[in-house]
Every structure is written in structure tokens, then in C-alpha cells.
Amino acid sequence: MKYFLTLLAALVIIIHSAPIVAEQPTVLIMGEDSDGDSIPRNSQVYGRVINAISGQLQRNGFSVIDETLATVDNYSQGQSRRTDAELMKIAQSIKTPPIDAVITFTVFPTFRADRTTAWMNVLIKSRLINVSTHKILATVDRELPEYVETEPKCDENRQCAFKYVGKYARKLGQDVGSALAIKLRRVTLQDGTAPSSSLKQAALQQAYTLTFENFNIQEFNKIEECLVAFTGYNTHKLLLNTSRNMVVWYKTKSDDVRLKRNLRRMLEYLDVDGQLQCVNKTCKLTKI
User: Which of 87, 165, 247, 254 fits a 20 to 30 Å CA distance from 217?
Assistant: First the structure.
């Protein structure tokens, strides 16, 4: 027991003594058009909005991934009316590089017709979502300050509607992107880490499912102490706890490589033989 406490104390000193810096999040921008009243994502309007949001994020130092280039080998292109579940599945499947956050947006035109012309407004609704935890980090909605004139019966003509929505898509997209960049910056700084620090940290909170097999109760207690001591620890919850197995939902700001290395090193602190298997954010540590 004394040996374990000495090793655990050394682990805490090592992983907390180095300064910490968070990476900038890698962002994927995706058009969400499952609502039948929205503009479909295969229109030019969506391209203008994506470029506008992307430009604002890049100006603020964030890395933006092109969905088409990242998914061209594994997914059918040009699909429209995709659900939230489909969007998240695609985002989680991209591994080079892994996606930290997804920005989804929807474009809604609204019309008011009178005897002279059709008046139009445009609303862009957006969400910023943590890909790992599925937490909605921010929402931004932007619309024109007033209705603008279009053409008679433009509300009944799909191409006319697209033409006039397209005139304002870039400006609204820039407003949305600028606000999202500010909110994303705020999220990455919430842990209060210093910008001059040198120890890598994940850009956003990451959620892992950790399974520990064939350990006894005393070893489980030591495992929990180590998990709490690891760099970037936020919280954890026991999903399954039996006499020989434990499943933990683990939330952390640790970068992926460091966390998995710490799990391997934990076997030494426990003084047991074991194997670690990980696929993405799911890991299983088995005592041999």
C-alpha cells in the first residue's frame, strides 16, 4: 500500500507539474436541411454560407475541415435532407484529423406577399456541438433586420427564392461565423490554462468509455484514484460496477495520446499484468 501511494503521488506531481496548453479545435461545418421549409444543402446558397462561416473561423485561428474532401472516400456525396443523427455519425467517422466540434446550420426563407410584390426575410439558425460529448456548446441565430422586396410571386417560385436568399447568404453567414468564433474561443478558454504553457491538452472536453475487466475491488479503488489524478480530469461516472468488472464514462481535457499512455502506465502502479485495447474513444483494460 505504501508503495502504491508513493507511485501515485509521483504520478500526480509529474502530470500536474508541467504547464498546460489547449490545442485549437478542429471544426467541421455541415448544412442541416432535414426541415422541409429550409433551403436544401445541394443549393449554391449553402456553399456561400459555409464559405462565410469558414472564413470567420479561420481568421480567428481555428482549423476548418472541408466535409466533401474528408468524406469523399467513404460517403455518398450530395445527399440532402440529412438528420442530426446522420450528421453526428459522419463527423465522428472522420479520423484524419479528428473533429472536435461541428457547426450545423439551417437556412430558412420567409415570405410575405402583397398586391405589389413578395417581401422576404432570411433566418440562419446554427449550433456548435462537441463531437465527443454531444453537448451543445452554443447557438447563434441571425436574420435580416427587416423584410426586403423581391419579385411578384417569388414566394411561389423556387429558383426566385434561391436567387434572393443567395444575395444575403454571405453577409448573414459572416455574422453567424463571427459570433460562433467568439463563443468557441470562450469555450476553449474556460479551463483557464495559460497561453504560454507547453503541455498539450485537448481542444474541447472529451468523453471516453473505459472498461476495466478482471480487477478486484481493491484494484478498482486504486484505478479510480489514478483516473482522478490524470491531467485534464473533469468528471467520471460508473456505468457498471460488479465484483470483477467496471465501466466508466470519463470526461477529460487530456489529449488522446497522453490519456492512453497514462492508462498503460497505470498497470505498473497497480503492479499487475494487463492489456489495453482502444478504438477511438472506447478503451478496455484487461487484467491477465
Answer: 254
Report how far Cα 158 is from the mean position of its chain's Cα atoms. Answer: 34
Nearest to 248 by CA among 283, 217, 280: 283
Residue 286 CA, distance from chain mean position: 29
**C-alpha torsion sign, points 147, 150, 155, 160:** negative
pLDDT in tens, 266-279: 999 899 999 999 99
> DSSP 3-state assignment of 145?
coil
Q: What tens digit of pLDDT does each residue of 169-213 get?
A: 999 999 999 999 999 999 887 744 444 445 667 888 899 999 999
3-state secondary structure of 269: helix
- Hey, what domains does the chain have and what are their CATH numbers? 2-18+204-287 (3.30.1360), 22-188 (3.40.50.10610)
Amino acid letter, residue 100: D
Contact call for residues 109 and 39 (beta carbons, < 8 A):
yes
Output the CA–CA distances (angstroms, integers) from residue 100 to 19, 25, 133, 135, 189, in the order listed.
22, 6, 10, 11, 15
- Read off the pTM: 0.76
Q: At what angle do helices 256-270 and 217-229 cross, to 10 degrees?
A: 140
237 phi-psi bin (left φ>0, alpha ψ -120 to 50, beta other): beta
Q: Which residue has the cell 502502479?
A: 269
132 CB-side CA count, 13 A: 25
